[in-house]
Amino acid sequence: MQNPTVLHSSPEDIEQAFYEALEAADLEALMDLWADDEPVVCIHPGGPRVEGYHDIRESWREILSSGVLQIRAVPVHKIVGGMVAVHNLVEQVVISGTRGEPQVLQVNATNVYHKGPLGWKLVIHHASPAMDIEDMEELDEFGEEELGDFDSPPTLH
């Protein structure tokens, strides 16, 4: 159950608290940010879709058991309505490279916040590895030729 005394007055406030909790490996603070009274979804980079407060908590517990995460969140685009906010950003995650030197990985992330009686709460966190320049060049080199034989995909919305 969440701590009802912590009210986040804006999507930016809760987003800052989210990344601070990750950097501190503070599972309790992290989970206080998630809505526990409505459907929630979390997709970690390269991982499956995790649904429900308790399953999301367990996924973060496993991740944070390795220690703190060094993450710099760089905002890219924000859409804010009266009750919902969608933030798209790039997470720059520092990990140990193969020789022990720090390496920065780029992760594309989307955070969705909902405003309820207890202020803003996180309802969706979706993160996936960003393609680096070499990957994009390789896709351009091989992907366009291969895909050129197909008709345009139908519009889904």
Structure report:
This protein is of the alpha+beta class and 157 residues long. It has one domain (11-147): Nuclear Transport Factor 2, Chain: A. It has four helices and six strands; from the N terminus they run ααββαββββα. It has helices spanning 11-24, 27-31, 53-64, 133-147, and strands at 41-43, 49-51, 70-80, 84-96, 102-116, 119-129. It has a six-stranded mixed beta sheet, with helices on one face. Strand 3 (70-80) and strand 4 (84-96) form a beta hairpin. The longest helix is centred in the last third of the chain and has 15 residues, at 133-147. It is globular and about 50 Å long.
Give the arrangement of secondary structure elements:
Elements: H1 11-24, H2 27-31, E1 41-43, E2 49-51, H3 53-64, E3 70-80, E4 84-96, E5 102-116, E6 119-129, H4 133-147
Parallel strand pairs: 1-6
Antiparallel strand pairs: 1-2, 3-4, 4-5, 5-6
Strand order of the largest sheet: 2-1-6-5-4-3
What would you call the structural class?
Answer: alpha+beta
Annotated CATH topology: Nuclear Transport Factor 2, Chain: A
Low-confidence stretches: 142-157
User: What is the helix fraction of residues, given as a range?
Assistant: 25-40%
Q: Could you say what the CATH architecture is?
A: Roll
Largest sheet: 6 strands, mixed
Which band does the percent of strand residues land in? 35-45%
Q: Tell me how many strands there are.
A: 6
The rounded Rg comes to 18 Å
Average pLDDT rating:
84
Tell me the name of the CATH class: Alpha Beta
| Number of structurally distinct domains | 1
Query: How many DSSP H or I helices?
Result: 4
Order of helices and strands: HHEEHEEEEH
Distance between the termini: 37 Å
Shape: globular
